[in-house]
Amino acid sequence: MAERQLLSSALYGILAILILVLSASLIVSFLLRFTSMEEGSFAWFLILFSFVAMFIGGFISGGKAKRKGWIAGAATAVIYTLVIFLVQFLGYNQMFDMQQTLMHAGYTGSAVLGGILGVNMVGGNNS
Fold first, then answer.
1. Domain total for the chain?
2. Residue 21 included in any domain
3. Is position 108 within any domain?
4. What is the DSSP string of 82-124?
5. What pLDDT tens digit does each residue of the chain (127 aa) get?
6. Dihedral sign, CA of 83, 88, 90, 91?
7. Which residue positions does the secretion signal occupy (predicted)?
8. How many CA atoms does the CB half-sphere of 66 hold within 13 Å?
9. Among 127, 126, 125, which Cα is nearest to 64's?
10. Quick check: 78 and 108 in contact, CB under 8 A?
């Protein structure tokens, strides 16, 4: 039963991440289309936002799991990385390069930290 709760909480975290990332993508695409801004001006913003989105996803996942937040955050990050890898590999026939591998390792760290704080902020099981 605990594994089911962990998977369920990780899926809530993934849903939150996808909503945040798709919202940011929509906003940036509108800004690129209707202003004179270029893609290069958003690079650092998008990287920072990705880490924040992973943190929030891990936080939600840890809060829903109510215990073992680091595992809930890690599961969220691993599922997210797996989805991104499958889209890239099956859709574009490309593997992760070293930069993407390091970014996803950082995403995992961010989601784990979010999961730990999510459990502690929501008030996990103290018994």
1. 1
2. yes
3. yes
4. HHHHHIIIIIH-----HHHHHHHHHHHHHHHHHHHHHHHHHT-
5. 578 888 899 999 999 999 999 999 999 999 999 999 888 888 888 999 999 999 999 999 999 998 889 999 999 999 999 999 999 999 998 899 999 999 999 999 999 999 999 999 876 555 4
6. positive
7. none
8. 10
9. 125
10. yes
Q: Tell me the C-alpha distance between 20 and 31, whole Å.
A: 17
Phi, psi at 102, each rounded to 5°? -65, -40
As a whole number of angstroms, the distance between CA 10 and CA 46 comes to 23
- Structural domain of residue 67, as residue ranges? 2-122
Burial of 42 (C-beta count, 10 Å sphere; 0-12/13-18/19+): middle
Please list, in sequence order, all residues whose beta carbon lies within 8 angstroms of the beta carbon of residue 65, skipping any fewer than 6 positions away.
5, 6, 9, 10, 71, 72, 115, 118, 119, 124
Q: How far apart are the first and last CA of the chain?
A: 18
Give Rg (Cα) of the chain. Answer: 16
